[in-house]
Specification:
CATH class of the largest domain in chain B: Alpha Beta
CATH class of the largest domain in chain A: Alpha Beta
Low-confidence stretches of chain A: none
Oligomer: heterodimer
CATH topology of the largest domain in chain A: Rossmann fold
CATH architecture of the largest domain in chain A: 3-Layer(aba) Sandwich
Distance between the termini of chain B: 78 Å
Number of domains of chain B: 4
Helix content of chain A: 25-40%
Largest interface: A-B, 37 and 36 residues
Mean pLDDT of chain B: 92
Radius of gyration of chain A: 25 Å
Distance between the termini of chain A: 55 Å
Shape of chain B: globular
Chain lengths: 581, 548
């Protein structure tokens, strides 16, 4: 690699040619303040906060975008630089609501932090010069508050470039510039998949999840309600970050303890229905392979992905597995099997999910997700919302003892845990399908080829003579690539796992902020660590699942399964549905 | 081929057309037919003749008499007296100055300062030929330069000639054209593009429009030469959407050039192929910024890109792209034909050649002029421009359009060229020359400038999007008498931040007028702090002051 020498505030550092000033300064131990910059996204260099002096240049240069050249002399802390940064921040603040108390990101806001860092303490400009914008809470999972938007466009980058959805884009110009859903309609009326990746990158409180905490508090306080909670696989490796812990720590036991202290009547694990999903979906795959069904079969656990294919590839819906997601299977069983077992009236059971996902809030409200006559799931909390509730309750997460999930839905295997990472559903399915088809024990349960954050992964498995070719995609941009291959007839896979969010659920839109690719990698490592720690690693070995079939479901793909655990999909339009105002 | 004893050249530039030039042309033809002189006298619709606010304008050759402000009722008179009886209709002849009581009977092409001070390189054919006929362009040495480069010169020699001419971009920034071409020429790529920036949006500027309307082939020829020099086979002219006539005439010219084998495959059997297509803008000022223009061509929202990479290396569709202004390209053929030394003999040493200006505001001769670089502001205002109407005093000239700086009286003897203007915080820019007389209030004038930028900022970067509205806010406070001394400092700091940190030239240059005025008209601006508008323009202040 060709290296160049540059001087940053008097220190000479050597960096690879093409590095940005930001990177060079970092090497010199200087953290240049940034705002629109995000390490995983394209550089737009538009907030103009990270400006620095480059000796010889006519204007100040944006450190995030300007590449260094050999011999460049950079000054990051001159009066001109400080004044310019402060001025640009003051400009942003002058059109930003000043009621920080009334904001979901209060004390976790990059703008607020920056104002403190740059020492902006007074408002020298007049009142707002831009129009007042109403909140858009039309979508089931997400809220847009354009009044708070500082137009950094990270959301646009992630929506277009990473997710290839393009639901929101800049509209209008000058001071009237806004980030708007396509065609200026409400978010609910565009092809937004509600993945919430935008909420992860928003530096302020302009994009966030629909708040379900109040309804959960109300249910917990209601003596008539039997409130059960399920925790998605990814929560145990990320909730600690809400309390300042380093990413990548497995905190399953503390999570259970925390939920119990919040007052949930039963603390269950979505991993249980993840195991169940593997049984149902595995048999569905075997059935399709043996009986000439539609192939490749594609997983259906990820609600953002489901909405994506419904909007953008509606002609391929029969490729989707008909299995409900583990969240919804859990809810359906909680209000039937569990109700029976516990002797409860299903109307009194209130099911709360803790999900790394915003789209789960949309999923639980889908009309087909109430096959028991009640909604399968009543409330969905993101990891962030759970963090908020625990803080409100004064629960000191790091000091909690490790506790065990309740039975029966707390009995799980490693196969269920790895659902939280991209490739996990595939690996779990292969662990089971292999043994069911071949009647032999797997020599090794680790299918490492499908692990990791890489966008598209492929593998081939030999099921005693039958070769099964599989693919795994994470992030909808990669999903789109696979779908286009299918469309062009170039995909010779039998089974595909698609997860909406980069890295899988551990990188979901409901996870702690920040969630970057570096942090995703650490959470993925933690997921496989949790898998390896469990005595059982294969879904079909889960004793509680076996009992469930014996006592209630009868057999995979049986009548009860079809009624409670399987679903259907809806063709949707990719263009805006109605215009507003 | 018929030989005509007289030619009636009717100005077909947009300003004259708006004032009814086409009716005038039709009436001339009708009257000439009535006198059965159709085979002796030819009526031609040409490009712009220059004095735009005097339209409709007509020149009759061989006498070279210019008639202005023509009404339909004047035409039978001119045809009867001038064309039939041979007597000039004195009372309709173009008078140089509105204030002049004397009617000039001189032939205005010779002797009048308005035209005398001009040097026509870019406008060589404007108003002299019919822009819709390629034959007329060819008859005036058109496409000779293209022939010369394709048959006698290697591409690198063409770049050398343009570099040696020291031609600078005429769109605003004044970047050396030869250097720009050399970047693209050196970059290896399977495709390269020549983009002609004809998205002329600077208020008060309409030179590119009139060049396209008056001599479209000069741009085509310049683009083809540029294409040969840098190795591009595709050209795109991005024309401001409102320029209907420019689009129409450019499209016709491209079609004719294709029909004559001057565009298309294997031009002159040289093996060089070049195609041009037209794209039209949709009304955003920002799309005149080259990277925003490229975004617009690609179908995206018109917003500047982060540079580097520069378009010369990675521009349209990521390919090396030369973006040149209309006037720059119109200079190319004469430079090739006459040589770089000839070009450098015009104008000043550091800024050779001519500059096309559009003069407007408080000046007698409004319209299109082409003068050698280095001409002083005084010469432009008082000689070419014919002075300020109504006997009022000169207050300032804004050069380079709304993004340019404002020059007070002290600068009247300053030569107009790139270097000198940039030293005082202004720019030659687009070539708009707005003259403002001493009855206007500087705060009021600045308010109107800033309002423009509030409207035209694309909204991408913070300093431009937010800053312009804040500058406008403070100026409004000044004119309402509510501003404080701290506001002046805040305005200075903000303007400086915009210059230093805005993403593109729009935001960087938006405060230029304000910064120069804070320097040259500090007293007048600060008077507003004390509740006084010296010119009495700021109404609320005027009332306050009188009441005291």
């Amino acid at each position: 690699m060709e290296m160049v020498k540059v001087t940053v505030d008097g220190q000479t550092v050597e960096v690879p040619k093409g590095s940005t000033i930001l990177a060079a300064a970092k090497k010199a131990g200087i953290k240049i303040p940034t705002l629109c910059h995000h390490e995983d996204l394209n550089v737009n260099a538009m907030c103009r906060i990270c400006v620095v002096e480059v000796v010889g240049a006519r204007t100040l240069q944006a450190a995030c975008s300007q590449p260094v050249s050999d011999g460049m002399v950079i000054i990051t802390n001159s009066p001109a630089v400080r004044q310019a940064r402060k001025m640009n921040l003051e400009l942003l603040l002058s059109n930003h609501p000043q009621d920080c108390l009334n904001c979901v990101r209060n004390q976790r806001c990059e703008l607020q932090t920056l104002a403190d860092q740059l020492g902006v303490q007074q408002q020298r400009f007049g009142t707002k010069t831009r129009p007042e914008y109403p909140k858009d809470d039309s979508a089931a999972a997400l809220v847009r508050d354009p009044d708070k938007c500082i137009l950094c466009r990270r959301c646009v980058e992630v929506c277009h470039d990473v997710q290839s959805v393009g639901a929101i884009a800049p509209a209008n110009r000058g001071i009237k510039t806004q980030i708007l859903p396509a065609g200026g309609v409400d978010l609910n009326n565009v092809a937004c998949v509600q993945c919430g990746q935008c909420t992860l990158v928003c530096p302020v409180g302009a994009l966030y999840e629909q708040d379900h905490t109040e309804r959960v508090w109300a249910a917990l306080a209601d003596p008539e309600k039997h409130v059960v909670v399920q925790t998605a696989p990814a929560i145990r490796v990320s909730i600690g970050e809400e309390f300042g812990m380093e990413p990548g720590q497995v905190t399953t036991g503390q999570l259970v303890a925390a939920l119990r202290r919040l007052g949930f009547d039963r603390v269950f694990d979505t991993d249980f229905t993840a195991d169940l999903t593997i049984i149902e979906e595995g048999h569905e795959l075997i059935d399709r392979l043996n009986n000439g069904g539609v192939l490749p079969m594609i997983t259906s656990c990820s609600p953002g992905w489901i909405k994506f294919i419904e909007h953008f590839y509606p002609e391929y819906l029969d490729h989707l597995s008909t299995c409900k997601s583990p969240q919804q299977m859990f809810g359906a069983l909680a209000k039937t099997y569990y109700a029976e077992k516990a002797g409860l009236d299903p109307k009194d059971i209130y099911v709360v999910s803790i999900m790394p996902c915003t789209a789960k809030k949309f999923e639980c409200g889908r009309p087909e997700m109430s096959s028991t006559g009640y909604p399968d799931v009543d409330a969905v909390l993101t990891t962030r919302e759970l963090g908020k509730m625990l803080r409100q309750a004064g629960i000191v997460f790091s000091e909690l003892p490790e506790e065990q999930y309740d039975e029966p839905f707390g009995i799980t295997t490693g196969a269920g845990v790895i659902f939280g990472a991209s490739g996990g559903v595939m690996e779990a399915a292969l662990r089971t399908v292999y043994e069911v088809v071949t009647n032999e024990t797997l020599p090794s349960v680790d299918f490492t080829a499908v692990r990791g954050i890489e966008g598209i992964k492929e593998a081939e498995v030999d099921l005693k003579g039958t070769k099964v070719k599989v693919a795994v995609a994470n992030g909808l941009g990669n999903a789109r690539k696979l779908m286009d291959l299918i469309k062009e007839g170039k995909a010779d896979y039998q089974f595909i796992e698609i997860m909406c969010c980069p890295g899988g659920c551990i990188g979901g839109g409901g996870q702690p902020i920040p969630t970057t690719n570096e942090i995703r990698k650490k959470r993925i490592e933690a997921i496989y660590e949790a898998d390896a720690d469990l005595p059982l690693r294969k879904s079909h070995e889960n004793p509680a699942v076996k009992t469930l079939y014996e006592e209630f479901l009868d057999k995979p793909l049986g009548e009860k399964s079809h009624q409670l655990l399987h679903t259907h999909y809806t063709k949707r339009n990719k263009y805006p549905q109605k215009s507003v105002g | 081929m018929a030989i005509y004893r007289s030619h009636v050249l009717v100005c077909g530039g947009t300003p004259c057309l708006l004032k009814g030039a086409r009716t005038i042309r039709n009436l001339f033809q009708q009257e000439i037919n009535r006198y059965q002189m159709a085979d002796e006298i030819r009526v031609v619709e040409t490009g712009c003749l220059g004095p735009c606010d005097e339209g409709p304008v007509v020149i009759i050759y061989p006498e070279g008499v210019m008639y202005s402000r023509l009404q339909p009722t004047d035409i039978p008179k001119i045809v009867e007296h001038h064309l039939y009886k041979g007597r000039v209709v004195e009372e309709l002849v173009y008078r140089e100055r509105k204030d002049s009581k004397e009617i000039s009977s001189k032939v205005p092409l010779e002797g009048e300062k308005y035209l005398d001070r001009q040097k026509r390189v870019v406008l060589r054919n404007c108003g002299r030929i019919n822009p819709d006929l390629i034959e007329e362009y060819i008859a005036n040495h058109g496409y000779e330069a293209l022939g010369k480069v394709l048959t006698e010169l290697r591409p690198e020699q063409v770049v050398e000639i343009v570099t040696a001419s020291k031609l600078q971009g005429r769109g605003g920034a004044g970047f050396p054209t030869g250097l720009k071409w050399s970047f693209t020429a050196k970059t290896q790529a399977d495709r390269k593009y020549i983009v002609c920036n004809a998205d002329e949006g600077e208020p008060g500027t309409f030179k590119d429009r009139l060049i396209m309307e008056g001599d479209p082939h000069s741009i085509i020829e310049g683009m083809a030469i540029a294409g040969y020099a840098v190795g591009a086979e595709e050209g795109i002219i991005y024309i401001r959407g409102e320029y209907h006539l420019s689009i129409e005439r450019m499209a016709r010219a491209i079609r004719q050039a294709n029909e004559h084998g001057l565009l298309g495959k294997n031009i002159f059997g040289s093996g060089f192929s070049f195609q041009i297509e037209i794209r039209s803008g949709a009304g955003a000022y920002i799309c005149g910024e080259e990277t925003a223009l490229i975004e617009s061509i690609e179908g995206s929202r018109g917003e500047p890109r982060v540079k580097p990479p520069y378009p010369g290396v990675a521009g349209l569709w990521g390919k090396p792209t030369v973006v040149n202004n209309v006037e720059t390209l119109a200079n190319i053929a004469p430079i090739i034909l006459n040589g770089p030394e000839w070009f450098r003999s015009i104008g000043t040493e550091s800024s050779p050649g001519t500059k096309v200006f559009t003069m407007l505001g408080d000046i007698n001769n409004q319209g299109l002029i082409e003068v050698p670089m280095g001409i002083t502001l005084r010469e432009i205002v008082y000689e070419v421009g014919g002075g300020i109407p109504g006997g009022k005093g000169f207050k300032m000239a804004q050069t380079g359009g709304t993004s340019g700086g404002c020059l007070p009286m002290e600068f009247l003897d300053m030569p107009m060229d790139y270097d000198t203007l940039s030293k005082v915080g202004s720019a030659l820019g687009s070539g708009a020359m707005l003259i403002i007389d001493d009855t206007h209030c500087i705060v009021d004038v600045l308010k109107s400038f800033m309002k423009f930028f509030c409207h035209e900022s694309c909204g991408k970067c913070t300093p431009c999007r937010e800053g312009n509205t804040r500058l406008y806010e403070i100026l409004t406070a000044l004119s309402a008498g509510t501003a404080t001394k701290a506001h002046i400092q805040l305005m200075k700091d903000l303007a400086r931040t915009m210059q230093l940190t805005a993403l593109c030239g729009l935001g960087q240059s938006a405060p230029n007028s304000l910064i120069t005025c804070l320097r040259f008209f500090a007293d007048e601006i600060e008077a507003h702090l004390n509740g006084k508008c010296p010119t009495g323009v700021c109404k609320s202040l005027a009332t306050q002051f009188e009441a005291v």
